[in-house]
Structure formats: structure tokens, C-alpha cells
Design goal:
alpha+beta; 2 domains; 5-stranded antiparallel β-sheet; 7 helices; 11 strands; 35% helix
Length: 252
């Protein structure tokens, strides 16, 4: 990362794998990815996860762990004019620091500016790596953001020109969710279901919507989906079959 001019540097814990008050957790693998991004590019330092309150940026970080607990610790550079905020942060006035982590998948920040329309896919933080790798493998243009905040969600803003790939990914998430339910109740805290938010504000909660209905809702919203409801149902059945066969192979 290029050297930049900062008025002051402050240390802090950016995030941990511990459960927050909303029952959400961030996996250690995700913290490791943040640490690498901070060391190579830097990540904004904000107050209360508000991008309008940008006061500096994290300039270096590493993950430290003990047993099953891990923490992402780092050093933040504070921009000139924010020295009073840095003093308040050191005194604990704001109750800790925050992170706004953004990444661009299969595109760049510059190219993303030319994207005309997007859909938003939100998943529980514990699902972030699964969805990140799926979108990356499908070469879907997306902007990714994760915050351990009030929402506790990982957010994927996806270019609509990838609509058929978005549908396929949604069907895969739907099948995976059903497969997890069949595996029996989890002893962990309840996981937030994956959702797609359309530009008009309509929310499609994937577990409450069948694959054919996902297609129908997107078509009704005016998106040029070429996958038919029948094909969507077939994709879902094949995915569930593959998941069941994988479990059988692992149990041998």
C-alpha cells in the first residue's frame, strides 16, 4: 500500500469471531481476508459504520487467535482535522472502532462506476465466504461489503446484466438452505435467511420462495431472465441430489 500522510495513528480491534448482540458471527477465514486487503490496499475507518463519517483508514492488520476465538487487530491512520475524534476513540467515547470492508469481484472499482442497475443479495455473515466463492467462480460482477453492525449481514451488490447467473446462484442458495434444514436443527443461533432486494424495494426471501417463483418474480419485475420456471426447478433438484450424494460419500 502507498504511504499516505496521516495526522495520527491509533491501534484497535477491528472485529472478532465472537457473537454480537444480534447473534451474528464472522468466521476467522473472513477476518484473514480483511487483514490481507488492509495490508495491500487499506480499508476506510468510519464511525458507526457510516460511510459519510470517514475519518481515516486502516493501514495494517493481522489476525490473532487463541483457541476458538480470533480477533482482527490493526493500526488506523487518522486524516488531518480529525485529531479530536482520534482522542475520543482512544478514550473509548465511541465504544470501539468500525470497519467498512468493500471488495470488487470480477470487476474493478473504476469499471463498477459504469454499472447501470444492480440487485442486492444479503446473507448472514457466517455464509459470506460460501457466497463470495460462488459468485467469484461464476464470474459475476459484484461489489461486496460486510459489516459486523446492526444488520449483521454480508451484502453483495450484483450487476443486473448477470441476471441468469444471479438466478442460478439464488437457486443454489435455496437448495443449500433446504439441505441444511433436512440435516436437523442447529444448536447455534438462528441464521438470517438469504434475501434478494430489487431496486423498487421488493424483497425476495429465498427460503420462503420456490425456484420457479424466484424466476417468476424477477420476470414480473422486468428482468430478461432466460431460465424458465421448469428449468429452475430442475436445477434445484439436481443441486439437492448432488448435496445428498456428497454426504453419502463422506459417510462411507
Amino acid at each position: 500500500m502507498d504511504e499516505k500522510e496521516f495526522a495520527e495513528y491509533i491501534p484497535g480491534i477491528i472485529s472478532t469471531t465472537g457473537m454480537d448482540r444480534h447473534g451474528h458471527q464472522i468466521p476467522e477465514e473472513e477476518l484473514e481476508r480483511w487483514a490481507e486487503k488492509i495490508r495491500s490496499e487499506g480499508i476506510p475507518l468510519t464511525l458507526h459504520h457510516d460511510s459519510d463519517k470517514l475519518v481515516g483508514e486502516w493501514v495494517t492488520a493481522e489476525v490473532i487467535s487463541y483457541g476458538n476465538f480470533a480477533a482482527l487487530s490493526g493500526i488506523a491512520g487518522v486524516y488531518g482535522g480529525n485529531e479530536d475524534i482520534a482522542e475520543d476513540l482512544n478514550d473509548g467515547e465511541f465504544g470501539g472502532l468500525s470497519i467498512t470492508a468493500q471488495d470488487y469481484l470480477n470487476t474493478s472499482e473504476e469499471d463498477w462506476q459504469s454499472v447501470d442497475e444492480t440487485l442486492s443479495l444479503s446473507v448472514d455473515g457466517s455464509w459470506s465466504q460460501f457466497v463470495y466463492k460462488m459468485i467469484e467462480a461464476e464470474e459475476i460482477e459484484s461489489r461486496f461489503e460486510i459489516q459486523k453492525s446492526a444488520a449483521g449481514l454480508a451484502l453483495f451488490e450484483i450487476a443486473v446484466e448477470n441476471i441468469d447467473k444471479i438466478v442460478q446462484s439464488a437457486i443454489l442458495l435455496h437448495a443449500y438452505w433446504k439441505f441444511q434444514l433436512k440435516s436437523g436443527p442447529s444448536e447455534e443461533e438462528e441464521v438470517e435467511p438469504p434475501k434478494i432486494e430489487l431496486p423498487n424495494g421488493e424483497m425476495i426471501t429465498l427460503p420462503d420462495t420456490t425456484p420457479p417463483e424466484i424466476v417468476e418474480k424477477l420476470v414480473e419485475a422486468g428482468y430478461p431472465v432466460t431460465i424458465t420456471p421448469e428449468q429452475a426447478d430442475k436445477i434445484s433438484q439436481n443441486t439437492e441430489k448432488e448435496l445428498n450424494e456428497a454426504v453419502k460419500d463422506d459417510s462411507k
